[in-house]
Amino acid sequence: MAYHQIRGNENLVAKLETITKSENVHHAYIFEGPLNSDKTGIAVSFAQALLCKKSPGTGCGVCPTCRMIESGNHIDIIRVKAGASKNSSVQSVRDNDIENLISRLNTKPYEADRNIAVIEDADTMSRKAANRLLKTLEEPPLGTVIMILSENITDLPVTIRSRCVHLRVLADDAKQNDLAEKTAGFVDLLTSRGSYISLKRTIEKIGKDRDKAFIFLDSLEDEYRKRLLDMDSSIKKEVIFKAVDEIEKTRKKIKGNVTVQYALKALTLNLGG
Ligand SMILES: [Zn+2]
Question: What spacing in Å lies between the alpha carbon of 26 and ligand 1's midpoint?
Fold first, then answer.
């Protein structure tokens, strides 16, 4: 997917294009965005723009290099993402994968003029893996570009964050809009101690789908933050901060394999429903 094929995220794409057309490509970027944002797609486009010879700086999306990057088969793009481990059903980036990625970055690229690493689900890295990665970020092999994909930058060590250029990927608008209306009503119900039946129904619906639950939590957080800026809002600041905190805890619970319905129910109770 070349830059011009990306839907939404216009500001980010413009920023990326400026970077890839310049001589000043930094060695590490964090792409932070919610679960339903296409961080991987954006990272792939960025890699295409960096390596495409036909349309340098933008990527053409159709040459053999661009196609190999798109299909995940380019030899100089090393990709890592979360998987289940032997001891746990929780999906996380394996230490071993980070080790292999680092040693591969220390060898010369085979076809391209640089190596590129894409680390998806980076917030799930262990501290050990993060420390290993940090060393590479401190002394990156020449030309290397490392992309770190994260749902929540605060889950990454500050030492890693400070070495990277931070970029924000916005959520898929269509999916977001679908839930936005519901969420606004949800906050009203919660704060006015509205009908419990109605709350329960909303939760039951959303709780059936893990992805939807994450989108819901994102827009619920947005909704609370909006109230923070709204002078007429009757909700106290402390209540909003507590809600944002509870929403983050709920995300962690769901990631840690608590059932979605249970986690959402607990959230409603904690928020005063
Ligand atoms: Zn191309």
Answer: 21
Residue 2 φ/ψ region, left for φ over 0, alpha for ψ in the -120 to 50 degree band, beta for the rest: beta
CA-closest candidate to residue 38, choices 83, 1, 73: 1
- 3 CA to middle of ligand 1, Å? 11
Question: 189-229 pLDDT, tens per residue?
Answer: 666 655 666 677 777 877 877 877 888 888 788 888 888 77
Q: What is the pLDDT of residues 31-79, one digit of tens each?
A: 999 887 899 999 999 999 999 999 999 999 999 999 999 999 999 999 9
Going from the Cα of 65 to the center of ligand 1, the distance in angstroms, rounded, reads 6
Q: pTM above the 0.85 mark?
A: no
Q: How far apart are CA 70 and CA 84, in angstroms?
A: 24
Q: Does domain 3-168 have CATH number 3.40.50.2000?
A: no
- Give me ligand 1 centre to Cα 35, in Å: 28
DSSP 78: E
CB count within 10 Å of CB 269 equals 11
